[in-house]
């Protein structure tokens, strides 16, 4: 249950709208690499020349406000109001939808979708509703996600791609039981009429001609057929839940159903074996993939993916074999598979020397891999746990410079480190800033914050 927090010292108000727009223009000028910087004055100046905008610049600016939906929406509307030649694309609408959905502002999301529908240049696409599925399911509003899928006929998007996006979102946020029932069940679930999707020709509850296409053996890009893809989603969903027995059960069921396992299937199952405390089985499975599947992969043109490499890197890091993991990191680039932020997370989670962590962090940024907010939170918590406040502040400042918008976890990690060192005034400053942004702060006696329930209890004493 969400904790309500009151602050006896008050809350810092939002900046005035004029400050918003000045900040927006500053962001645009600093992000855009193709335009010259210009001064941004008051809206009363008619001779004002605004910085030319492109969609990439707008996207980057929205990303910087991804944890502050009010400012993001203010900027989103301001762009079209003040730049007559600029019109939002489907992509920029999708970014704004994701920010609103993250804050559970679903009514505003649908208002934007109706705006998109009226403009042929920003008509909703599969990504639009993939975002809606993801945000509904992340809020555990499964019925609303399914209802959204049923409404896709109005947008001519009620097809197998949208269905896969729905299943993927359900599995991503641990609603695997509902996803599996939608795929393999033969009865209605949560008010969802399977006949609308599966029709009367059911094989394990699926109209395969509608979901998998006429040629069920072609698959995705001629390599991985769609039943494998959907089964991989279910397998990954059980993995996220940590139900290892269900993972093994479904792995065997894939064989019984005649599902042709792909490289991604093996990558997921290797991770399952590693996380379930059976790393020797992971090594055995890796050898099986290497020896038995390698030739078939080569014939089909398959190469190890980023998921495969990250799984092995995580296994090596968990076993304190950092040199081998770093060697694999270099080998990835040689094989044309560039590391992503998850690759570096494997190292950050296991390394125990601040100097090595910071050196790897710098190397990650220099290589073009942009750290996420989760990356910075991971490092701040680690340094705070070790008592290195200077390093916590260093990561916080780097996070802002790199354009990562601090979320509740980032603020809490910073405030905890400050409180631990007795810097109460500075901690209170960030606590008030956090509350002003509408982010949930932890109750802390040191800062004079406490649960609203405690206030009520004190009144009745």
Automatic annotation (TrEMBL):
Keywords for this protein: Repeat
Ranges of the PPR repeats in the UniProt entry: 227-261, 305-339, 372-406, 407-441
Superkingdom to which the source organism belongs: Eukaryota
Record has Repeat as a keyword: yes
Keyword Repeat: yes
GO molecular function annotation: mRNA binding
Similarity field: Belongs to the PPR family. P subfamily.
Protein name: Putative tetratricopeptide-like helical domain-containing protein
Species per Swiss-Prot/TrEMBL record: Lupinus albus (White lupine)
